[in-house]
Amino acid sequence: MTKTIWPTEIRLSKDRRTLNVTFDDGHAHAFSAEYLRVESPSAEVQGHAPSERRTVGGKRDVRILAVDPIGNYAVRLSFDDGHATGIYGWDYFEALGRDRDRLWARYLDELAAKGLRREP
């Protein structure tokens, strides 16, 4: 049986470009707003199947406007580009932190393959 991890702190930086998440197992992650936006768990980004996943370019300067709790299991992030439909559960944050290098490399490869850029 897998132990559920719980956040002990979720803190948005003053410039709204970084979300810091610390877990009860001692792991801490500083997530850029851009990374969280392009890896949003929303259907708009992830689709309803892996083949429907969408590559979102132009988000280098995106900021997080709000971090709203959803019960005791997740938060909804609202971004200044109007995106506010992703619900980020604790396990999803943990996976984003654990797999950051692989996910970020995949994202950069997808941008290049589709002729997209990080810049707005």
TrEMBL record:
* Matches recorded under PANTHER family: OS02G0197800 PROTEIN
What Gene3D superfamilies does the record tag this protein with? 3.30.2020.30
Establish whether keyword Metal-binding is in the entry.
yes
Q: Which positions, given as ranges, span the membrane?
A: none
Q: Which residues form a coiled coil?
A: none
Provide the protein name: DUF971 domain-containing protein
Q: Where in this chain does the record put each Gamma-butyrobetaine hydroxylase-like N-terminal domain?
A: 10-93
Q: Which Pfam families match?
A: GBBH-like_N
Q: In the record, what terms sit under GO molecular function?
A: metal ion binding
Q: Does the keyword Protein transport apply?
A: no
Q: Which UniProt keywords apply?
A: Iron, Metal-binding
InterPro entries recorded:
GBBH-like_N, GBBH-like_N_sf
